Amino acid sequence: MTDHDTPDLPARIEAAAARLTAAADSRTPCAPVREFLGREDIDAAYEVQRRIAAGRSAAGARVVGAKIGLTAPAVQQQFGVFRPDFGVLFDDMMYAHTEPLPLNRFLQPRAEGEIAFVLGRDIDRPGAGVADVLRATEFVLPAIEIVDSRITGWDLAITDTVADNASSGAFVLGTTPHPLSGLDLSRVGMVLQRDGEPVSFGAGHACLGSPVVAVAWLARELAARDQPLRAGDVVMSGALGPMVPIDGPGRYRLALDGLGEVEAVIEEETK
User: Fold this and answer.
1) Is residue 269 classed exposed, middle or buried when 0-12, 13-18 and 19+ CB atoms within 10 A define those classes?
2) How many whole angstroms separate alpha carbon 211 and alpha carbon 123?
């Protein structure tokens, strides 16, 4: 289906949202939603994302920030999608260093190492740039994102992952804050280990040149959609290296040069 085929766009958006919601509720991956949205209609895909997020908010979930996806070339190559996207972070997705995550909450989880920004000021200017991000950031933390897809086999076009809340699952934050003053995040090196074995390597410059650049991109995108970043928001700034599959229980430890470590503990079920 092309972006302008029948049925009409509102019906196609509703069908895509219903399919993804059913997949999430049943923990059963579904067929791609690009059959409803086409491969390039980004605005329609973000409307699907907005509707699903509104449903979650109505059910009691609280928005705590935003995430950027598809920033690292290694991740873009993994999926053949070569532009970033964004999604919504909810409070029930947020975990702390070493806090157990139940494996059964995910469908097809993968882990990636990131830097999380915690904002002390709003960033609501449509033309926000790096300086605005630097002024607004209260501190950064090492973070692991557990990405997940409701789409069977991670068979994604850009519209599939955008509609699916940028393939979000959960995120784990470190507990030692670092101010940005004097830090060059583009030069931060990353090693992600699984049960003590290194499985992913990366660096800050792989994230759109710098995680600060990625957050500035996000700030502009959200301001243009009248959903600006606010003080207190957590921003997952994007992968610094390749994502790795989570095939079962395990411990995923991320080490970032100068920013410390964070560990995600995946358990078969939480006690």
Assistant:
1) exposed
2) 16
**Token pair recorded at residue 67:** 């995430």
Distance of alpha carbon 30 from alpha carbon 33, whole angstroms: 8
What's the CA gap between 112 and 73, in Å, rounded?
A: 13
Residue segments in the chain with a per-residue pLDDT below the cut of 70: 1-7, 78-82, 270-271
How far is residue 130 from each of residues 139, 207, 263, measured CA to CA in Å? Answer: 15, 14, 29
241, burial (CB in 10 Å: exposed 0-12, middle 13-18, buried 19+)? buried
Q: Which pLDDT tens digit goes with each residue over 85-137?
A: 999 999 999 999 999 999 999 999 999 999 999 999 999 988 999 999 999 99
In this structure, are residues 86 and 69 in contact, taking their beta carbons and an 8 Å threshold?
yes
Q: Which of 32, 42, 31, 49 is nearest to 3 (CA)?
A: 42
- For residue 243, report the phi and psi dihedrals to the nearest 5 degrees: -80, 155
DSSP state of 176: S
Separation of alpha carbons 156 and 212, rounded Å? 26
Q: Which amino acid belongs to residue 240?
A: L
Rounded to whole angstroms, the Cα distance separating 51 from 13 reads 9
Among 218, 206, 139, CA closest to 176 = 139
Nearest Cα neighbor of 246 from 96, 146, 170, 98 is 146
Give CA–CA dist 23/92, Å, rounded. Answer: 18
End-to-end, the C-alpha distance of the chain in Å comes to 46
